[in-house]
Amino acid sequence: MTYAGSSIAVRVSTAIVIGFAMVSLTATTGSAETRRVVVRVYETGIGDVALRTAAIRTAASIVEMAGVFVEWYDCTDNGRRPVCQDARRSGNFIARIMPTLTPGAPLRKLSVEALGAQGNEPPLGFAVVDPDTHAGKMATVFHDQVQAVARRTGVARSELLGRALAHEVGHLLLGVRGHSRSGIMRAVWTDDELTRDRSDDWVFASADRQKLQQVFIED
Fold it and tell me: Is 163 inside any structural domain?
């Protein structure tokens, strides 16, 4: 297995309903139907429900803007529910929000660096994608790195956490280890980019949107 990570975002009207810790968004795809896709979110060691909920909302809206329907379930406090245990079918992904990068964790992942740096900071997160089947396995985001970058750049912590979550889940949905040259799936986010906050930097680029729709939307 190999590891990767990154981010994206776009502005669109979003209908978000939270019930039983689920965030559900319906993509506007006309008469087309989308395959059922579930992302189960687990957060450990932080315990900030408001932060987690806001981050999931941000990630969900970014993915929805790409035209793909995804059901987001917060399984942090009630992982025994059926929706949090149905992991055997395709299109069922796990996203973890961890307190910090654990020793020995793979380091070929998304890095957010200061302008002019060379990507020497610890990563915001990573995603596990099977190199043979291209099946996404699991996404991980590190809260301490998100918090450090958010403080330095003035970006809201929940917003940055949600963007990083969308980036890593994007790897799972696309089934790719590599990164894009623009949009949320680019490999490195600089402090300058985060401070300027251009909307095109935080959404899926056109080519990535097309790939997602080819995989998940059926006419």
Answer: yes
